[in-house]
Target: ABC transporter ATP-binding protein
Amino acid sequence: MPPPQPVLEVERLSTVFDLRAGTVQSVNDVSFSLKRGEILGIVGESGSGKSVTGLSVLGLIEPPGRIAAGSIRLEGRELTTLGDAEKRKLRGNAISMIFQDPMTTLNPVLSIGRQFFEVINAHRKVSYAAALDEAEAALVQVGIPAARERLSSYPHELSGGMRQRVCIAMSLINKPAVVIADEPTTALDVTIQAQILNMMQNLVRDSDVSLIWVTHDLSVVAGLCDRVAVMYAGRIVETGPVEEVLGNPRHPYTRGLLDSIPGDAEPGRRLQQVPGTQPSPLDLPQGCSFRPRCSQARDECKNELTSDQVGPDYFVRCLFKLGGD
Model:
């Protein structure tokens, strides 16, 4: 039997923003795929391009931003050539997104039940009563007690964790093939965060949905994801199975991120921080963007790099990889 086709395929995606100061290369030559029922973590520093990658996949890039090159295929259908009306049919239906702040996602003047109806009715014509029945079942699935009563509540009447659970339920209500979550647990306390991460794992397994989890937290990636893509200055520098990438990283930047985690430091010793700062996207270094901060850097790193395969479904964009040739 041939292997199943990926539900989402992104190839050589480049997204730019045309500003007065110049053209910002926010996402540069990014490629990855997502299998059905798989969780992919996209991790990197602020400004690395991970959130813009997610917005590009959903077709939410607006001027002065634009997708300059590349291909995005959802279940074999090319998304970059679709018109606005066709993209709206897909968003919230075949592909959906969970944003970081639920208070900016939910409408403050509409009840939770009304908002569920709007989400469902945008893609399927159902009665209001039928929509409420679906919404109640969805709220139960994400662990909200007294779900029927919550449908008459307004967002300000719910806690932060419950609001995020509502957003998760809304993202899944139309049974999408792919969900993109942009740091949805960042503003929540650790206990609630752990509950939502565990819930998301169960929902992915039970619903057979594919999930992209955008985050800066490697501990979340370690506990949640099947594969991870590490981004730096708009490019994916390392991608592969979570256990291999985090257990034995091959790119110096990934190694630097892991070394800077406080919990892994020996008592009494200073953290091994990555020196310097991420370069401005208006003035990226020639060749490898990580070169000015890299202890492995040599003159050859000024040349344009490609991703090399170092294992099954494991790619690294580096000439002088750690722990190998």
Notes: DSSP finds eleven helices and twelve strands in the chain. The chain has a mean pLDDT of 92.
